[in-house]
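Structure (tokenized):
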């Protein structure tokens, strides 16, 4: 592996930073520990620091040894800094000190890898132009990436392209995957309220049963995937909650169903929403219930642009060898709020191998831990990306 020697040298320091961040996890817009930690480390490295965007976001700005001269003059590198509402079960000496909060998605590692690259690039400045180090809060559920964009991230810190990275359990350490086009799904949520007429459980004919109507909806909604969507188009429609009734002998007056829809294409997303409305209205009419659908679009699909994905893959190959970079992985039905940044600038979101996904070492698992051996590899990818995109010569 052609990991940058200086980053190998920094590995013990960076590992201690990663474990410090791991022990102090905080969630959406409350990541004050990470935010302060990042700002301090960037300032120590002589990097200009801007705090307060999206509450706990931090942006570091670093200029190379000469002004930008090519087509690309400024690059954005983004790491997410937030944790999850999970009670850690690793038993590690550096496990979470904050009850109910845990770095179970490796954002502690993402933060550290970007800090490592920032430190190295501040020492060497072997690039032409500007790097914006973007440390983004609230990736999980709350769309910190969207908030940063809304607060004018790329107007205040202009970049020509932007890059993201996520560790990937199950992909061997020292391997990368980058896919051109949609790589992570759009994430929508919905709520269906079914209103019938409550009655005695022994006399159903005197009421209108919202549980029977809701059950028909659960089944019929599956046909949007199996009968209305082309087999080659990806769509997931999952009901995750069904709430109705409180006791044995009463048919309740209403039921609430909730769930999520995942898609890659806006056309499939539009058709899924319209199909849901049609099915729900139809079953309500057939059963005599009334039903409403609240459909909320959360994260858009994460779509990598072609030229930047080639840059990313070639840079990864520079670090780990061409044979260890995959450019045709299957897309993932999970979602990612880096999508909002990719909606504003071309770029690429790459997966970095975190090693085996055994013994609970899976994302969002209470036994997960970021693989510290990935730190110099990921930091080298970031540093080389800047040096290759913004060459001095
Ligand atoms: Ni994550």
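Design, position by position:
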């Amino acid at each position: 592996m052609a990991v940058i020697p200086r980053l190998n040298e920094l590995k013990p320091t960076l590992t201690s930073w990663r474990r410090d961040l791991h022990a102090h996890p905080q969630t959406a817009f409350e990541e004050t520990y990470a935010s302060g930690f990042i700002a301090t480390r960037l300032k120590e490295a002589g990097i200009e620091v801007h705090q307060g965007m999206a509450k706990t976001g931090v942006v570091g700005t670093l200029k190379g040894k000469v002004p930008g001269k090519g087509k690309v003059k400024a690059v954005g590198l983004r790491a997410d800094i937030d944790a999850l509402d999970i009670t850690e079960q690793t038993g590690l000496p550096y496990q979470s000190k904050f009850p109910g909060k845990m770095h179970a998605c490796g954002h502690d590692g993402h933060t550290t890898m970007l800090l490592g690259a920032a430190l190295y690039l501040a020492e060497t400045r072997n690039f032409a132009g500007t790097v914006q180090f973007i440390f983004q809060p609230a990736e999980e559920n709350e769309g910190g990436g969207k908030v940063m964009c809304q607060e004018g991230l790329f107007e205040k810190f202009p970049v020509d392209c932007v890059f993201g990275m996520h560790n990937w359990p199950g992909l061997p350490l020292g391997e990368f995957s980058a896919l051109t086009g949609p790589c992570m799904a759009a994430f929508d949520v919905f709520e269906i309220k079914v209103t019938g007429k409550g009655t005695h459980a022994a006399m159903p004919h005197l009421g209108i049963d919202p549980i029977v109507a809701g059950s028909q909806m659960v089944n019929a909604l599956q046909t949007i995937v199996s009968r209305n969507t082309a087999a080659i188009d990806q769509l997931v429609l999952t009901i995750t909650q069904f709430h109705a009734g409180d006791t044995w002998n009463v048919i309740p007056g209403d039921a609430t169903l909730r769930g999520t829809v995942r898609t890659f294409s806006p056309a499939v997303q539009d058709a899924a929403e319209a199909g849901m409305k049609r099915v729900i209205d139809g079953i309500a009419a057939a059963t005599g219930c009334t039903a409403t659908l609240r459909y909320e679009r959360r994260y858009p699909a994460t779509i990598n642009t072609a030229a930047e994905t080639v840059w990313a893959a070639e840079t990864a190959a520079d670090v780990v060898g061409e044979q260890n970079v995959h450019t045709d992985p299957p897309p993932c039905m999970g979602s990612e709020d880096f999508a909002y940044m990719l909606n504003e600038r071309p770029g690429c979101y790459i997966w970095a191998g975190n090693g085996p996904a055994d013994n609970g070492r899976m994302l969002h698992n209470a036994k997960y831990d970021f693989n510290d051996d990935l730190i110099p590899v990921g930091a080298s990818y970031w540093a080389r990306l800047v040096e290759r995109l913004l060459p001095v010569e």
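Reviewer-requested clarification: The chain has eleven helices and 16 strands. The domain at 5-184+301-389 is CATH 3.40.630.10 (Aminopeptidase).
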